[in-house]
Amino acid sequence: MLIIGEKINTTLKQAKEIVERKDAKALQELAKRQIDAGASMVDVNVGTRIKTETEDMKWAIKTIQEALDVACCIDSPNPEVLKAGLEVHRGKALINSTTAEKKRLEDVLASIKNFDCKVVALTMDDEGIPEDAEKRYRIAAGLIERLNREGFALDDIYIDPLIRPISTNSDSGKAVLDAIGKISTSFPGVHIICGLSNISFGLPRRSLLNRVYLAMAMAKGLDAALVDPLDKDLMATIISARALLGEDEFCANYISSFREGKLQ
């Protein structure tokens, strides 16, 4: 399970202030806290700073990697920002993201074609985000075929079936679970990722819904998630789900996590 820490995002007050001040030490500490909590990668999203997004992205990636041997998830809808991030990134980054929208797909592919990277592809086309599992699956299949044709190995492709809030459509949670199951069965080797918190938008006890849904999605084939690794209950859910799904031989990680106080 690939855990991507979501805290370096300028929609969040702490990250916004750090980037505004160009506080390198605080940024490095925020990244380190996420890695220490169990993340394998940190997301970097400075998209609210439209006028300076390119330079902010380059600064953030270089600053993080000066202190930590960690890959970044370069998160922007702007292909030029993705390219700028890749130019300064050491090692193999994860690009977040492209879609099946014709212009965006072509623009993103043109920007990243000369780099060795992984890519997140959203199940969204020129008609928007589908409501049902079957349309999500068809879009995913098309994206996988195109990315593979462009030279991306299946192991470097991460499909995001785009979780929608159940507060606005009661069937949206099940539709995404069904899509995850079909994609993971049809395309072994391809990864499935999600931004978890959308599922609970507008509802009370959001963290409870997020945790339960994450375990359900993992059982269907989800193997990567953009989450807050500082949420101890959420991380405990991931550790427990992996043990229950047979992904933790002899429950070794579960037991060691208990001994380290991570399952309190």
Please outline what is shown here.
The protein is α/β, with parallel strands linked by helices and 264 residues long. Helix content is 48%, strand content 14%.
What does this structure look like?
Residues 1-245 form the Pterin-binding domain. One of its GO terms (cellular component) is cytosol. Belongs to the vitamin-B12 dependent methionine synthase family. Keywords: Cobalamin, Cobalt, Metal-binding, Methyltransferase, Transferase. InterPro entries: Dihydropteroate_synth-like_sf, Met_Synthase/Corrinoid, Pterin-binding_dom. With 264 residues, the protein is of the alpha/beta class. It has an eight-stranded parallel beta barrel with strand order 1-2-3-4-5-6-7-8, surrounded by six helices. The chain has one domain (2-259): Dihydropteroate synthase-like (TIM Barrel). α6 (133-149) links the parallel β5 and β6. The chain has ten helices and eight strands. Helices cover 48% and strands 14% of the residues. The model has no long low-confidence stretch (mean pLDDT 97). It has helices at 13-21, 24-36, 53-67, 79-88, 102-112, 133-149, 172-186, 206-220, 232-244, 252-259, and strands at 2-5, 41-44, 71-75, 94-98, 118-122, 157-160, 191-195, 224-227.
